[in-house]
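Summary for the lay section of the report: proteins are chains of building blocks that fold into shapes. Here we show the chain for HTH-type transcriptional repressor NagR and then a coded description of the shape we predicted for it.
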Amino acid sequence: MRSRENLIPVYYRLADDIKQQIEAGVLKDGELIPTEAQLGEQYAISRMTVRQGIALLAEAGLIDTIKGKGSFVTRPRLNQLVIDLTNSGVSKEQLRYKLVSVNLIRNNLELAHELGLSGETNVIAVKRLLFKDQLPVAIEEKFLRYQKGKPLLETQLEYADFPELVAKHQDSVPVRNDMVISVAVLSAEQAKLLETEEVLPALVVKQVIYSKEDKPLGVSIMVCHKDRFELKATSYPLSGRL
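The coded shape description reads as follows.
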């Protein structure tokens, strides 16, 4: 029977070995890692396989490769944070979603500008509430370009995450999600939905998803109750892929 170690691709084991040396401080920031030829000899593998391992390390942000010079260890970028909205504040399993409304908005200039549209435009507006236990924790409004002949199922509107909803509804492939986090006060309508007082501060998370052509495909605005929702971020998460 083959051992578990033998089932792991050699290029992955090579990348994991180097990752452990970097994290243990054996290989230091700016230090040149062994050449492809040296690694190939050490692991008894081809240069092509070595390159696969190096590509994994580069994707994880652990090395920078300079053509003609080699691959150098890079310091973890602790000032770069990744927010996973599906796991922020409360876990997805604890959240309950309630679809509040779905509307077709015609010729709204502000929304048209946000979505990079011009002339007569139709925009789908979806509003839902997020609950933890019996308490509403956030209001989410999603605005999508109207696509004739592309109906959205109610289950998608109610349960799909915003990037997933955009991906299913658009012909273009979403490749970038820009986010702005700010603070605002609750309007009377928002306070009523969140079952709290008016003019209380709230966390506002705005996302705009773009295509490869830099065309906005959808806008999401999530208004979060200040005491019931929090955002969590992790620095340098890419190396966790190894």
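Put simply, here is one thing we learned. The chain has two domains: 4-73, 82-235.
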